[in-house]
Design goal:
By secondary structure, this protein is an alpha/beta fold. The chain folds into 2 domains: 217 residues, Glycogen Phosphorylase B (Rossmann fold, 3-Layer(aba) Sandwich), CATH 3.40.50.2000; 157 residues, 3-Layer(aba) Sandwich (Rossmann fold), CATH 3.40.50.2000. Strands 3-4-2-1-5-6-7-8 form an 8-stranded mixed beta sheet, sandwiched between helices. Strands 11-10-9-12-13-14 form a 6-stranded parallel beta sheet, with helices on both faces. The longest helix is centred in the last third of the chain and has 24 residues. It starts with a strand and ends with a helix. The C terminus is likely disordered.
Length: 397
């Protein structure tokens, strides 16, 4: 099949951890490569964010990454991109009209990509699959007035959920949110993200560490990721060091340093900065426990990466983490934004070597059995074939 992926702000070529680059970039890159390995012809369309971007780059996996001119050719925050999505969709459709490469199915990643996708695909009778990666209603619920999303977001997401041929939910919690938004259950496919088991594995180099037990937390340094809550938990977990790996905001790093100082744990909190993805497995292997404690999380790739490296995970009981982390089997789930409960949970786990080992072994098994990219790609392949088959049947009638 010819499969077009639309990822307007999250290019698979971007380095995770930079501004607006995170789990979606990793997801799109991993999924595209896995689908290409199954023999599909994959193109990922992303917005041209620099004047020197070539029209198309072909990755080592054989995936074509197409830079679509839409708006100024410079980096913009994703929340500023909505005015350019009509242009993105029109240029996308024009490319397909003038190119023998026309997709059999379009998979939109994020709501703004969905707007561009339906603009281009609907007039050409190409089926559209939508993955939101995050929902505006959830973001607004947790961030309130701090939510910088365009005010039209929630309405557009409801509309896209009802007109897409299929909506892919990445976890059960997201599927429930979609049904509450009015998306028919028959159009929702539950397909979690995947993890690269060749990159993230227990065997391999280990990052240098001290004699202290190590609690590691990984992610973009944004408030909702809960790093401040983790630091506030450290007084209840004496002994271990806390290493935070992520970027790119120096101001947020400084704020977190002040939190550590006020809590009296500055000597046990270390900031590793932004780590290239190739270096992350060594950091996971160096940890006794990995903590992922966001306020909310649509899916969450870092716990999966840690599990694939055979590490136990302590995670907030929110969103996709409720699916990936099995409480009392592969790790422990805790209430979000509760430093005291988090600290006590971390202390009990770090002090119990046998439980750490058992959790890590079960985590590795779960990652390998349920979250490999070939498994995820195979399930999405079935979704694509189902919607493309309906489209062919409709044309035949």
């Amino acid at each position: 099949m010819r499969i077009a992926m639309i990822s307007e702000h999250a290019s698979p070529l971007a380095a995770p951890g930079t501004e607006d680059a995170g789990g979606q970039n990793t997801h799109v890159a991993g999924l595209a490569a896995a689908l290409a390995a199954l023999g599909h012809d994959i193109r990922v369309y992303t917005r041209r964010d620099g004047p020197d971007r070539p029209p198309m780059v072909v990755t080592g996996d054989g995936v074509g990454v197409v830079h679509v001119p839409a708006g100024p050719a410079r980096a913009l925050p994703k929340d500023a991109l909505l005015p350019y999505m009509g242009e993105f969709g029109r240029r996308l459709g024009a490319q397909w009209d003038g190119d023998p490469w026309v997709p059999d199915v379009v998979h939109a990643h994020f709501w703004m990509s969905g707007l561009a996708a339906v603009t281009a695909a609907r007039p050409r009778d190409i089926p559209v699959v939508q993955t939101f990666h995050a929902l505006g209603v959830v973001k607004r619920r947790h961030q309130g007035a701090a939510d910088t999303s365009p005010p039209q977001r929630i309405g557009f997401e409801r509309h896209l959920g009802r007109i897409a041929d299929r909506v892919v939910a990445q976890c059960r919690d997201e599927a429930r949110e979609l049904t509450r938004m009015g998306v028919p259950r028959s159009r929702i496919a539950l397909v979690p993200s995947g993890v690269d088991l060749d990159v993230f594995a227990p065997e391999g180099p280990v990052a240098p560490r001290t004699a202290r037990p190590r609690i590691l937390s990984v992610g973009r340094l944004v408030e909702r990721k809960g790093f401040a809550d983790l630091i506030r938990a450290m007084p209840y977990c004496p002994g271990p060091e806390c290493v935070i790996a992520g970027g790119p905001d120096p101001a947020e790093t400084e704020r977190l340093r002040h939190v550590a100082e006020r809590c009296g744990v500055a000597e046990r909190v270390r900031f590793a900065g932004q780590v290239p993805i190739a270096g992350m497995p060594a950091w996971y292997r160096s940890a006794d426990v990995v903590a992922a404690v966001p306020w909310y999380e649509p899916f969450g790739l870092t716990p999966l990466e840690a599990m694939a490296c055979g590490r136990p995970v302590v995670a907030s009981a929110v969103g996709g983490l409720l699916d990936t982390v099995v409480d009392g089997i592969t790790g422990d789930l805790v209430r979000p934004r509760d430093p005291r409960a988090l600290g006590h949970t971390l202390r009990r786990l770090v002090d119990d070597d046998m439980r750490c080992y058992a959790y890590g072994a079960a985590a590795l098994d779960r990652a390998r059995q349920r979250y490999s990219w070939p498994r995820t790609a195979g399930r999405l392949e079935s979704v694509y074939r189902a919607v493309a088959g309906r489209s062919v049947a409709a044309v035949a009638r």
